[in-house]
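Forum: Protein Structure Q&A
Topic: Joint prediction for protein chains with partners

I've read a bunch of threads here and the consensus seems to be that you should model interacting components together rather than docking separate models afterwards. I'd like to see that in practice. Below is the full input, 571 residues plus whatever partners are listed. Could one of the regulars post the assembled result?
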Amino acid sequence: MNGFKIFIVDDNELYARASQHHLSLNPDNEVETFATGKDCISELYTKPDMVFLDYSLPDVSGIEVLRKIKQSFPEIPVVIVSGQEDVSTAVELLKEGAYDYIVKDENAHERMWKATNNIKENAELRDEIDRLREEVDHKYDFSNIKGNSTAIRRVYKLIEKAAQTNITVSITGETGTGKELVAKAIHYNSKNKKKNPFVAVNIAAIPRDLLESELFGHEKGAFTGAVNKRIGKFEEANGGTIFLDEIGEMDMALQAKLLRVLQEKEVTRIGGSGSIKINARVLVATHKVMAEEVKNGNFREDLYYRLLGLPIELPPLRERGNDIIILGKHFLDEFIKENEMPKVQLSPEAQKKMLNYHWPGNVRELKAVMELAAVMSDEQRITEDDINFNSTNSGLNDMIAKELTLKDYTLKIIQHFLDKYERNVVDVARRLDIGKSTIYRMVKNNELEI
Amino acid sequence: MNWKFNHPIMSDKKYNLQQLEELAGGNTDFVNSMVETFLEYTPGQLQEMLNAHKEQKMDVLGAVAHKIKPNIDLFEISEIRNDIRLIEEHGKNNLNTPELKASLDRLEVVLNKVFKQLEQR
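Posted by a regular:
Agreed with the consensus. Here's the joint model:
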């Protein structure tokens, strides 16, 4: 921080000098004194960090100087210093935007000292916030969603459109495709929202019983264990954005409540009587196919339509072609920079291996694979052998490479479907067009696990 | 207020530089320059008040009193602490009373004593 510039406007030479001297005891402070309001106003362009203003000046009245300062430089804090102990004038001046009101008594200089420190602290915090905000803006800039494929470029366009309005956005896509990143990009690129909070809630990560109070808050004593009042996520996000991840995991009872909140734009804390107006943009995400969930009776149809808004479907990584390489290199560079490692090259063979893989864990998996490769590589080159896939359901190519018997392949395929569809034998049998008794028999023989 | 040193019975000194010295943070040059400034401006301001009273310019009287009030507090000239406030109030409200005259007289006497004492400090 450069010098902290303080103006003192006071026609009482003696008092002004005493104040100047006192405030200058802190070498960071650069204090200038002015005998008249006009002198001060004509120097405002040099941007003081704060102004101490005597209320009764010979030329213009203090309130007028205050107004002038607030008109041209509303961000400069003005502290009124006055010989009067008059509450109504003080209130008037504070209403006009004065930062504080100090009476010239024996404590005046101490209070001026404190006011200076408070304002200084505030200014430092504000600078810090600006800096962090800039950092966040940059972090969630469009340019950070990497890739050139047509599929992802379509997503860019939708994000841009979503950011321009307040429309609810539903983001779908396989696990690891970057749904939260898209949600943040929408929030931080919205002009009217980005300075307000972005609150993310992962529905799947919060126990059912706690979810309601997590979302809507509760009053003290609303239920056993509610020892304190709690602000819900919706209230926290007021003015900003609430991102409900894994919305498909929400149970029916809570869905009804959520629908009401979205329609009325207000929440009632559990155990509370009054309702609180909420103005928050809603973004939801899920890896499930919501239309299917509705058809199966797991998700309310009315809520589905309420949340659908602008649907953004994130393409799985395997459909993004060369993006795999672009992203891979990006993650590699990032990891290397973070860990201060020497630069490494991605060999053509390694690239080929990456392009042939089906990436069930999508971008998240890619990041992990690249980081591992960076660690494993000898010399400054990532070879085919450094690229290791550890996915739970390894790809078709890998599977065929294993040269198993047809029966073993059949078992593997059925097991894969069982895992994917929550061990629902009837569903899997229908999908694979085999008899469900076939599956049950394999289970009985311990060939399959359910 | 530190009566031990400032009470007229205990000491003849009409002022007290303790507050100013605290403010100075041990810088005696600063205290000296403040005293100089006080001596430079206050006699003129006293004269201005006496003239204003003579010419019935009550608003001017009130304004000057308002202006030097903090200085009288700063130099802890406690004997006229209330007088300067009375003069300010009366001037502002355009009240020319015998009390005002008495306060002004006291102000003149005490301040002149302070000027002399400060000069011989």
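Chain B has a mean pLDDT of 87.
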